[in-house]
Amino acid sequence: MSSKWLFPSDIDELVGLLERDNPLVHGGGTGIPRGRVRSSKVVVDLGRMGWDRCYEDGKDILLGATCSFSRTVEELSRIRPGHVLVSALSQAASTPLRNRITLGGSVAFFPLWSDLMGPLLALGASVDLVGTVSGRYPIEHFVSNRGLFRGSVIRAIVVPDLPMDGWYYREVRVGFDYPGFTMTLLAQRDGDVLADFRGVCVGTKERFKIFNDISESLKGIRYGDVDVNAVAEKLKLDFPDKKSGSGEYFGQVAKVWFERGLAGLLER
Ligand SMILES: Cc1cc2nc3c(=O)[nH]c(=O)nc-3n(C[C@H](O)[C@H](O)[C@H](O)COP(=O)(O)OP(=O)(O)OC[C@H]3O[C@@H](n4cnc5c(N)ncnc54)[C@H](O)[C@@H]3O)c2cc1C
Predict the structure, then answer these.
(1) By the 8 A CB rule, do 167 and 201 touch?
(2) How far apart are CA 15 and CA 134, in angstroms?
(3) pLDDT per position as a tens digit, 146-188
(4) Residue nearest to atom 28 of ligand 1 (CA)
(5) Least crowded by CB within 10 Å, which of 62, 95, 126, 226?
(6) Under a CB-based contact definition with an 8 Å cutoff, are residues 179 and 170 in contact?
(7) What pLDDT, on a 0 to 100 scale, did the predictor assign at position 176?
(8) How far is the CA of 226 from the centre of ligand 1 (A)?
(9) What's the first-to-final CA gap in the chain, in angstroms?
(10) What pLDDT score was predicted for residue 207?
(11) Whose CA is nearest to atom 47 of ligand 1?
(12) Nearest Cα residue to atom 8 of ligand 1
C-alpha cells in the first residue's frame, strides 16, 4: 500500500486531518520504522507548520515542536547561553541526526536513551497540544498518561525560564552511543543557601526517576553544609540490564556521577 504524504501549513488544516484521517505524524522521521510509514494511509509531515523557532515571553522559553536538536542548540545559545538543554542536546547522537531529530517527536517517542527528556522533566516543562486534546499539560503527566492524548500533536514545549545552574551527564562508551542513562541536576543559589535543587535520571526501570525526596531534603541548606557523599548514598536507582552493562553496574555508576555533579554545582 502506498501512503499519501500531506504537508499542512495551518492549525485548522492540521486538526481537520487529525480528526478525519488518524494520520501518522512525521517530525524528523528518525524514530519511525519504514514499515509503519508503508502501512499508514496518510502521513502528515509537520515541516510546514512554522513551529521551528525558540523564543522567550518574559516568563517561559517556548520551543517549537519541529525545532531540530541542532536548531534548538543554536537558538537557545542565543537566548540563554549555558542552558542545560544546550549542553544536553549538543551531545546527542551524531551531527546528521541532530539536524533531523525534532523536539516534538522526541517527547512523543521518549526513548530510554533520550537526551531531551531529563532536562525537560527537571525544569518542569509543559507540552502545548493541538488536536483532540488541546492546551498546556505538564510533561510528566503527558508522558505518564499517553493514552489520554491520542489524536493530539505537540505544537511547542514550554520551559519555565528559571535562574538555575545546570549539570548534565550521559553515560556512554563513545560519544555517539545511545546513553545507558542520563542525569540532569539543577541548583538555584540564594546567597549562601541552596534555594532549590532538582534532579532526574532517565533510563531506569521505570523509564525516569525524579529525585523529589533529595530535592526536599536539600532545600534551604547552606552550600557549605551539604554532605555530598551522604546525599549520594541516599540515591536508589533501579536499572534494567542493558547491552552495555548490568543494572547493578549502572546503579553504582549513577551514584558516582550524581556525587560528582552535585559537588560540581555546589562549587560554582
Ligand atoms: C542511530 C540513532 C541514534 C540516536 N541517538 C540518540 C541520542 O543519543 N539521544 C537522543 O535524544 N536521541 C537519539 N536518537 C533519536 C531518537 O531515538 C528518536 O529517533 C527521536 O527522538 C525521534 O524524533 P523525531 O523528530 O525523528 O520523531 P519521528 O520519528 O518523526 O516521530 C517519532 C514518534 O513521535 C510522533 N511525533 C512526531 N512529532 C510529533 C509531534 N510534534 N507531536 C506528537 N507526536 C509526534 C510520531 O508519530 C512517532 O510516533 C537517535 C536515533 C537514531 C536513529
Answers:
(1) no
(2) 10
(3) 999 999 999 999 999 999 999 999 999 988 899 999 999 999 9
(4) 29
(5) 95
(6) yes
(7) 82
(8) 38
(9) 58
(10) 97
(11) 25
(12) 93
In the block, cell 522526541 appears at 106
Q: What is the 3-state secondary structure (H, E, C) of 156-203?
A: EEEEECCCCEEEEEECCCCCCCCCCCEEEEEEEEECCEEEEEEEEEEE
Nearest to 65, CA basis, from 134, 152, 128: 128
Residue 2, C-alpha cell as written in the block:
502506498
All three cell numbers of 148: 489520554
Ordered DSSP codes for 247-260: HHHHHHHHHHHHHH
How far apart CA 25 and CA 18 sit, in angstroms, is 9
Helix ranges (H only) for 44-181 are: 69-79, 84-89, 95-98, 103-109, 117-123, 139-144
- Residues 191-243 have pLDDT tens digits of 999 999 999 999 999 999 999 999 999 999 999 999 999 999 999 999 999 98
The pTM for the full model equals 0.97
Give ligand 1 pocket residues (Cβ under 6 A): 24-32, 46, 65, 92-93, 97, 101-102, 104-106, 108-109, 111, 113-116, 153-154, 178
What backbone phi and psi angles, to 5 degrees, belong to 197?
-145, 135
The pLDDT of residue 16: 96
Q: Which residue has the cell 489524536?
A: 151
User: Which of 133, 172, 155, 132 is CA-nearest to residue 253?
Assistant: 172
- The number of beta carbons lying within 10 Å of the beta carbon of residue 251 is 17
